[in-house]
Prior knowledge:
Blueprint: H1 8-14, H2 21-29, H3 33-41, H4 50-57, H5 61-77, E1 82-87, E2 90-95, H6 100-108, H7 117-129, E3 132-133, H8 134-141, H9 146-154, E4 158-163, E5 170-174, H10 176-182, H11 200-203, H12 216-219
Antiparallel strand pairs: 1-2, 3-5, 4-5
Helix pairs in contact: 4-5, 7-8, 7-9
Organism: Actinacidiphila polyblastidii
Protein name: SMC-Scp complex subunit ScpB
Keywords: Cell cycle, Cell division, Chromosome partition, Cytoplasm
Amino acid sequence: MTDLATGPVDAALADGDPPPAGLLDAAAASLDLKPALEAVLMVVDEPATEEHLAKVLDRPRRAIGKALRELSDDYTREGRGFDLRLIAGGWRFYTRAEFGPAVERFVLDGQHARLTQAALETLAVVAYRQPVSRSRVSAVRGVNCDGVMRTLLQRGLVAEGGTEPETGAILYRTTNYFLERMGLRSLDELPELAPFLPEADAVEAESQEGLPSFDPDALDETPTSSMTTSITET
């Protein structure tokens, strides 16, 4: 029978054994860089760092960064429907903003599941006061936020980030997914709104932990017009 293997990696796979790491490294290093980057980025589920891509493709990080920026410029110049962006410390393909309606119609059939006003207010407090406990968020907002925090946790916008030394309360922080949805490279790019939020200690008065839990999302169904463009449930 004719051997259909076209190279050492294919031959190893044909024998039923995984190819040695050295063969994989050699195969990756022999690929054209830009098409190889496109192939890898097509399958990532979170932004890929230049360091990781350099390791995977066995290339210098400087070469990886240069190729990524050139690809991004090429897509913009050619008016492609997708964009390659540096977000949350890594690179990933995104739908270009002007083609968002087409994607939304295809994926959601025109039905948008947006965060409510209550959820957005809670997310803002977490973003600017993190790491912060649920009771402190409730104190800043003036209402119990148990239900909203559950919603934000389920959507991956916030995550647990340790405990408060004094009380043992769980602390919450925003996630990389939050950065992705907001189009931010890091929290340093958040708008300068923190001075307008009161210090939690000044308004905390008493803990909200003893209050009955309720879901503000069920009471407030009015979507906002500013942030919901960036954060939708997909």
